[in-house]
Amino acid sequence: MIYIAGMDDHTDRTRKPRADAVRNRELVLEAAKVVFNAGGPEASLEAVAKRAGVGIGTLYRHFPTREDLFEAVYRREVEQLSEFAEQLKNAKDPVDALRRWLRSGVEFVATKKGMVAALALAVQSGSELHAFSFDRLTKATGSLLDRAVAAGEMRADISPEDLLRAFFGMCYIHDQPGWQSTALRLLDVFVDGLRVQPVAKPKAHTTKRAKPAAKPKR
Amino acid sequence: MIYIAGMDDHTDRTRKPRADAVRNRELVLEAAKVVFNAGGPEASLEAVAKRAGVGIGTLYRHFPTREDLFEAVYRREVEQLSEFAEQLKNAKDPVDALRRWLRSGVEFVATKKGMVAALALAVQSGSELHAFSFDRLTKATGSLLDRAVAAGEMRADISPEDLLRAFFGMCYIHDQPGWQSTALRLLDVFVDGLRVQPVAKPKAHTTKRAKPAAKPKR
DNA sequence: TTGTTAAGCGGAGGCTGCCTCCGTATCTTC
DNA sequence: GAAGATACGGAGGCAGCCTCCGCTTAACAA
Predict the structure, then answer these.
(1) For each of chain A's 218 residues, which pLDDT tens digit applies?
(2) What is the number of other CB atoms lying within 10 angstroms of the CB of residue A131?
(3) How far is the CA of A29 from the C1' of D26 (A)?
């Protein structure tokens, strides 16, 4: 078989992916979304496979680990969330923009029961697979945070990662009756804390600030 | 059998608990502490039983659920933590006292790998069993918080429960390389946010404050 | 079309952990 | 020492995880 230069349709001489494989992947994803949103992140993978109408083996071939499946299911949602940040970049008040973004995050979490676990995955432990979500969210947060810092309204020693973790932490209590209002309240406090303090504090706090959050190598 | 008033040794006419039962309970607790601290809260209960040198049935009789065991294991630690709060009540600067308490909490979590799960249990979901830990911690937090509020240094619309949840949330990312410094930084920001803002904000934020955290009925 | 072959399918089966149940052993009490 | 209450332990049933491999099917070439 001769490779024809310039033939850029599918640049590599690889077989087209099988139609059934593509279809099944989609079926699994759809089923997983339903099952995870209903039963939480602990839900049985066999249940997902059954709902999708595929064998358990098929599920595992497409998504070798539970986390893979998770990431795939919530990728779209994460993307949505970061797009909202994009929009907010044009808001007048940068602090308010950040605040609003965080608040919208709470709402997001509220509607998707599995979302917290997805965020956990994105924010937590430096495994490989969650890279996408983590990057997206970090960038989204960063763009809002940076603006506020540049405007001189916020302290500069909190990294986007830090903020993300704080956000996540505050949403983590998401299976209590009134968790939403709690989370919103806590986030407000946090954002207030992020503001550059208008006057010197009465007592200089010597709790030494950590050096500006070392960016994770990546 | 005649009940003798004033005989206050064991006030009720019940059998003395069996010696082996008492011993086994202790063995299980000790084993659980080791296993949980090493393997995290997911660790196998059968492993605990094996380590304790008792049958799995014995373990379950003493601690019908995993949570029961958890609570028992970390009860002492929780107590210690709240005692520290007690000491701090005499500190001069109430804001600083609170800050220090939270920070010490981070250290605590750092040394006990299972501690976060224990806190989660205490802070999360209103099941029955965690009442003790939750109460202890709420009171500890409350006493410090109240003092700061009374001194006019902190806003009054955050309940001890809220604060506890925030603390927990920030510790939740406890399996990352640098999580400790992150958590400390985040807590500092949060405490700053809690302070009564010295001057009116440049732009009145209309994000309406939730009504002063309704105390959970209990 | 048809044949070839890589890719994908599915579920049996091995494994681990959860939890219950009950015959047996041990301790307390008298 | 005997009786009776209490606790012990682990077999066994169940569920979920994940792997492995014989069978099926879609893509491609001719």
Answers:
(1) 333 333 334 345 678 999 999 999 999 999 999 999 898 889 999 999 999 999 999 999 999 999 999 989 999 888 999 999 999 999 999 999 999 999 999 998 888 878 888 777 777 655 554 677 888 899 999 999 999 999 999 999 999 999 999 998 898 877 777 889 999 999 999 999 999 876 544 444 444 333 343 333 33
(2) 13
(3) 22
Residues 27-66 of B with CB under 7 A from strand C: 44-47, 56-57, 60-61, 64-66
Among A99, A149, A203, CA closest to B198: A203
Q: Give the residue extent of every domain in chain A.
A: 18-64, 73-194
Task: Please judge whether A203 and B93 are an interchain contact, meaning their C-beta atoms are less than 8 angstroms apart.
Answer: yes
Q: How far is CA A173 from the centre of its chain?
A: 17
| Contact assignment for A210 to B184 by CB distance below 8 Å | yes
Cα separation, A158 vs B116, whole angstroms: 23
Count of all residues that appear for chain A in the document: 218
Place domain A18-64 in its CATH homologous superfamily: Homeodomain-like (1.10.10.60)
Tokens of A17: 């992916």
Contact A194 B199 (CB under 8 A): no
d(CA B22, CA B27): 9
Report which residue is nearest nucleotide C8 when distances run from CA to C1'. A21
Identify the CATH number of the domain defined by range B74-198+207-218: 1.10.357.10
* CATH number given to B16-64: 1.10.10.60
Distance CA A57, CA A55 (A): 5
Superfamily for A73-194?
A: Tetracycline Repressor, domain 2 (1.10.357.10)
